[in-house]
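Appendix C: a fully annotated inverse folding record. The material below is reproduced so that readers can follow the format used throughout the book. The structure is listed first as tokens, followed by the designed sequence.
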């Protein structure tokens, strides 16, 4: 049988001493959709990044949103035929939100799956950066610029500018046209977009699943952590696990981890230290219909209070 796909879920955990998991622990990573309740203006008013800028009359909407597709269509529009003769220009998005007090001990990030184009982002009037390319996902850290608990609301502002036309050989859209998420993570966590899963060998009898990831320590002190790989069947049952040896991660630094899982018929778990091998009872190939997909989960174990978090794919 052949493995056709592996679904990845990242479950950063911080455990106390030995890897004994707490049954009911608060989450250390919280992923919140930020798609709802944005305010939008198809214009470029000066000062729109400031928290006290008046936006009560702006249009309220949810993202993903493409303001260009709303028209009007006009042969004189600078996008030309390749851009569907649709309008171009500047649009602003603003989102007001509050955060609980316990977020003050975490690292908080905002993730955009895509903004078309030349996006600029501010949090509470502080500019976070600019992303010219509209097709790529990006992330900014908000830590240090936020209000928590009863200290007031927060304001996230995004300016999208696709006025430079023609810009593409096809219609590219305009605005926050993909999803947005707020991520609150523990100070020691898996680095964003640092996890890679491959299958270096695939055969009818077995396949090797190789995992590489990076643990980032954003705390004020060095930590010693280990990485656990778990393989779950389509029903969510853990069928195999393997844990690496502990490695130090200095404050403000990161450490790479590697691990392998051998997917084959019923054989014992084997392996050593940083490149361990776990075996899984494998009965089916991946298929789309009926859906049957194995999930791979990563856990980080350290020396703090045990906590569990929801999966993110």
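Designed amino acids, in order:
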């Amino acid at each position: 049988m052949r493995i056709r796909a592996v679904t990845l879920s990242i479950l950063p955990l911080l455990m106390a001493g030995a890897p004994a998991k707490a049954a009911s622990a608060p989450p250390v990573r919280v992923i919140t959709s930020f798609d709802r309740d944005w305010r939008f203006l198809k214009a470029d008013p000066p000062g729109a990044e400031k928290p006290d800028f008046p936006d009560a009359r702006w249009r309220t909407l949810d993202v993903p949103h493409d303001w260009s597709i709303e028209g009007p269509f006009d042969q004189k529009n600078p996008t030309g035929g390749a851009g569907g003769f649709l309008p171009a220009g500047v649009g602003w998005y603003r989102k007001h939100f509050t955060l609980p007090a316990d977020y003050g001990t975490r690292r908080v990030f905002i993730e955009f799956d895509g903004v078309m184009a030349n996006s600029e982002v501010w949090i509470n009037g502080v500019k976070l950066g600019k992303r010219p390319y509209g097709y790529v996902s990006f992330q900014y850290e908000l830590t240090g610029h936020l209000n928590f608990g009863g200290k007031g609301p927060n304001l996230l502002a995004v300016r999208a500018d696709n006025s430079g036309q023609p810009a593409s050989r096809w219609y590219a859209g305009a605005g926050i046209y993909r999803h947005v998420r707020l991520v609150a993570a523990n100070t020691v966590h898996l680095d964003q977009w640092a996890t890679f899963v491959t299958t270096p060998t695939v055969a009818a009898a077995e396949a090797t699943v190789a995992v590489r990831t990076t643990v980032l320590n954003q705390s004020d002190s060095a930590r010693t952590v280990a990485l656990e790989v778990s393989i779950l069947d389509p029903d969510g049952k853990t069928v195999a696990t393997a844990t690496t040896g502990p490695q130090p991660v200095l404050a403000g630094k990161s450490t790479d981890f590697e691990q392998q899982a051998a997917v084959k018929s019923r054989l014992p778990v084997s392996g050593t230290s940083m490149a361990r091998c776990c075996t899984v009872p494998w009965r089916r190939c991946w298929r789309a219909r009926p859906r049957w997909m194995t999930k791979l989960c990563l856990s980080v174990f350290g020396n703090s209070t045990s906590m569990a978090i929801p999966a993110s794919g």
